[in-house]
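A further point concerns the way the authors explain their paired sequence and structure data. Each protein is reduced to its one-letter sequence and a matching series of backbone shape codes. An entry of this sort, consisting of the sequence and the corresponding backbone structure tokens, reads as follows:
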Amino acid sequence: MSTGQVGRETFDEVMVPNYNPQAIVPVRGEGSRLWDQEGREYIDFAGGIAVNALGHCHPALVEALETQGRKLWHLSNVYTNEPALKLAQQLTQKTFAERVFFANSGAEANEAAFKLARKYGHDHHGEGKFEIISFEQSFHGRTLFTVTVGGQLKYRQGFEPVPGGVTHVPYNDIGALKKAISERTCAVVMEPIQGEGGVIPADPLFAQQVRQLCDDHQALLIYDEIQTGAGRTGHLYEYMAMGVTPDILTSAKGLGCGFPIGAMLTRADIAESFGFGAHGSTFGGNPLGCAVAGRALELISDPQLLVGVGERHDQLVEGLRQINSRQRIFREIRGKGLLIGAELVESWHGQAGQFLAAAREQGVLLLMAGPNVLRFTPSLIMPQGDISEGLAKLETAIGRIKASE
């Protein structure tokens, strides 16, 4: 096989088939636009699944990467490094947290959070305090532990036996949580807005009651803000808008704006349970990733940028509503900031993938959140003209699907 020319078909020849990529290969990105191998241009409403928070190849991030790349790439955690220390300072100054652990991904950040919660429970309450309660339809990663904590059976099937001591209850159902939580519970973990589960926001009262139940049962509250964090909802982290402060928070995706990095944030007293040797990561705190994330965090923290997220939300949601007034295709449009889900009407349930393919043919890229929901997670600074153009292309795609019924 030649190693020169590669295309979508090469994936099927050389890659493990756990993904089914779209029938194009993007080769260049700038802002909110992508170009494929054939030179076709696309408007990007997907944003790398809420990762490219500042679009593709943002000049300030390219500069941060190039500058650090000429200085220092890797040390391992035998040493610390300046970009990691500076990023940890930024995160502790801007959030409730006092201590930070760096990893390479959201799954690794969650793995650390769940391990820390169990270790803290063991250290302070003994061996019997180990249970983690999560919510149905949640998603927390693909490691064996995180896929077990996640509330979607399809991601666990075939990998059994999975770790024990994990309980799932319905989201936004405080009664179910009250029945499940006990002296065995070391932590409750939740997404402020369930992303992969269909873009389902937490009810504000429910979020407050979860916090109180954790306090009543001496359990830690873990917020998975991997998808909602880094400005995605119009706040630096969504807990800030909810009036609820977690004990542990995980962040990734938009934190590095495309450079792989994850972080677990917590208080100093909880962090003590991760003493020397308790957990680790060879590449966690990598100078390249931390340099990029540090610059990204500076930009995303700008109050004007966060206000702009709300403005773009309004434009995108209003545009989807106008499309729906003509096409009658969406049952509900929900979400916050630039994490938006448009649930298809029941007659089109299970067909979200068809809309992604049709949209791609019209030059617009979007996502699914399950088979019934179109998901939009574009750049937080997407030009408003691109939003309008992308919505027009989407409506053309919807019209063609409906015409082919």
Notes: Residues 87 and 294 are 5 Å apart (CA to CA). The mean pLDDT is 96. The longest strand covers residues 330-336. The first helix runs from residue 8 to 14.
